C-alpha cells in the first residue's frame, strides 16, 4: 500500500505509528497473518522508520493476509478505522517473488522549512543562495556527526543525489534535496540542515525546522521509479 503519514501525526514516533496501524488493522477485522512462536506478531512492515517530527507522502506499507480478500474491501475496511493523518492512496496485491523494501528503494526526497534568523537582510538571503550553489559545485565535503557515544566523519556529497535548492518566503526558509538510501547508513536530514547553518552560513538555527519526506524511489538508469511503476523490480526479482 501507498499511504500518508500526515501533519496530524508528525510527532508520533515510529513504533507508536506502527502500533496505530496494527490497532486499525485489528479493528477492521482484516484476516492479517501472524508469525509463529512464543510471541507472535502481525506481519506488517513499513518501508523505513521515520524520525520523530517527519511526515511522509508516500509511505509504503506491506501486509500479509491469511486468506485472499478483494482489494476494495481491504481499503474500505481499513480506511474506516484509520485516524486522521493516515490516508490510503494505492493498494496492490504483491507477487510472492517481490523483494523486500530494503532491496527496492535507494532514494528519498525531503523538504525542510524553518524560520529565518531575525535581522536577516535581502542581501544576506542572496549570499545564502550563492553559498548553497557553491556547496552544490563541491566534489566532496566532510561533515562530522557528533553524538554522545562517538564522532563520525563522513563525505556527504555522494549521499546527496541532486543539487539542493533553497528559497525564502515571508520569513521562512525552504530547502529541498534528495538522499541516497543505503544499508550502510547515510546522512540524516537534520544533519543537512545543521551542516548548512554551521558551515555555509544559511540564515537559520540548526535545531529549528520541520521535515517532510515527499518521495521514495528506486533510481534506475537515470529515472525515478515509484513502487507501482513498471520496471522498478528490474534485476531484483528472484531468478533474474
What does this structure look like?
The radius of gyration is 20 Å and the shape is elongated. Helix 1 (14-28) crosses helix 2 (71-81). The protein has 2 domains: 2-94; 107-220, Alpha-Beta Plaits. The protein has 240 residues and is of the alpha+beta class. The chain is 24% helix and 29% strand. Strand 2 (44-46) and strand 3 (54-63) form a beta hairpin. It has helices at 14-28, 71-81, 101-104, 122-137, 189-199; strands spanning 2-5, 44-46, 54-63, 86-90, 107-115, 142-146, 151-155, 165-169, 172-180, 210-220, 223-225.
State the separation between the terminal residues, measured CA to CA: 25 Å
Counting DSSP H or I runs of 4 or more residues, the number of helices is 5
The class by helix and strand makeup works out as alpha+beta
Principal-axes shape call: elongated
Mean model confidence by pLDDT = 92
Salient structural properties:
alpha+beta, Alpha-Beta Plaits, 2 domains, 11 strands
Question: Mind sketching the topology for me?
Answer:
Elements: E1 2-5, H1 14-28, E2 44-46, E3 54-63, H2 71-81, E4 86-90, H3 101-104, E5 107-115, H4 122-137, E6 142-146, E7 151-155, E8 165-169, E9 172-180, H5 189-199, E10 210-220, E11 223-225
Parallel strand pairs: 3-10
Antiparallel strand pairs: 1-3, 1-4, 2-3, 5-9, 5-10, 6-7, 8-9, 10-11
